[in-house]
Amino acid sequence: MNFVEGVRIALGAIRANVLRSFLTLLGIIIGICAIISVIAIINGLNLYVAENLSNFGPGVFVINKFGIISNEEDFLAAIRRNKDLKVEDAHAIAAACDLADAVAVEVHSTQNLKRGSEEVKDVDIGGIEPSIVDIEPYEVEEGRNIAEDENARAATVCFIGQDIVTNLFGTVDPIGKRMRIRNQEFEVVGTAKKRGSVFGFSRDNFVKVPFNTFRKSFGSRRSVNISVKAGDGVPLEEAMDQARVVLRSRHHLGYGETDDFGITTSEGVNDLWKSLTATIFLVAIFVVGISLVVGGIVIMNIMLVSVVERTREIGVRKAVGARNRDIRTQFLIESVVLSCVGGAIGVSAAFVVTWLIKTYSPLPASFPLWAPVLAFGICAIIGVFFGVQPARKAARLNPIDALRSE
Prior knowledge:
Layout: H1 3-16, H2 18-53, E1 60-64, H3 72-81, H4 87-96, E2 100-115, E3 118-128, E4 140-143, H5 148-152, E5 157-160, H6 162-169, E6 178-181, E7 184-192, E8 197-198, E9 201-202, E10 206-210, H7 211-218, E11 225-230, H8 236-250, E12 262-265, H9 266-309, H10 311-319, H11 324-360, H12 371-395, H13 399-404
Parallel strand pairs: 3-10, 5-7
Antiparallel strand pairs: 1-11, 1-12, 2-3, 2-6, 2-11, 4-7, 5-10, 6-7, 8-9
């Protein structure tokens, strides 16, 4: 019994009982489809986060009050321990860190905007130092970014996202027009290119104003975010360590004390996200694995029924010289082929599901090219594991008793 002959016999048995074979494979189809769909969603989310959420640019890190915190205990401890970061901290880093190429601050608030009778609520207002564009680029659609002299004299100018252009100005060119933020008039000097949304949340619903203007208009008692860009060729970790030393010294922290601030990098955001999706994946695999186990048990049962139905065939094969090993191999191949056919249908269904998710939902699913290999590997293992017992039973049949079977 060679492998090709075994596959041919197995496919013939499937064609002879199409409905029964499909019902037998339903658990495998659902399990494989679910596994590959979950992998596609997680793969798409990981790529999306890497491209959109954590892309600070090369050599860039952000120092803020909390950094990345992944559990409630650490968050509560940080609330008690961490101090607000001030613009003076950023100036100290710029003066003392020779490995930093650029340092700038940004601070945020949420406000409503008005222009005539039009109003846009809950807009992210960011107070920025103009030099931040050298660290975190804000691409310009029309007009320009905020200038250094405007920050120096706390000018009431602003740079707006595309949501504000659409919702507040409509078809009117916003450049040079004015709008109100907390009853103060601001002149629009530039608009940003459209950035799209993340998981359904718009990244274009923002207004940037000069940092000094922000402090004058909305108060200065807020913790700032400090963006730092390491010099060309400088390892990011060395620039981070240098900035950390400056802040620890300014905050009078002892050698054994924990930092009272956080540092965020693209790699840190990606690592946190991947650890979260890995946990989700393990839970999903456990749940979906139940379907695969049930599918495997159904395959074993149908193979046991097949042994009973084909007892006379087995007797004939043994009578003409087939060895126990040949019979065992034949039924194992049939079990694996049956399982892999279910896997192929499951992969095809997962491809369609991934396309539907990517097209009609905000989830950025991405079908991985290695998914079919994983699917067929799982199916082969299931086929072998649950096909061993029926194959052994078939191989142990006495040829004389088998030939007497009707």
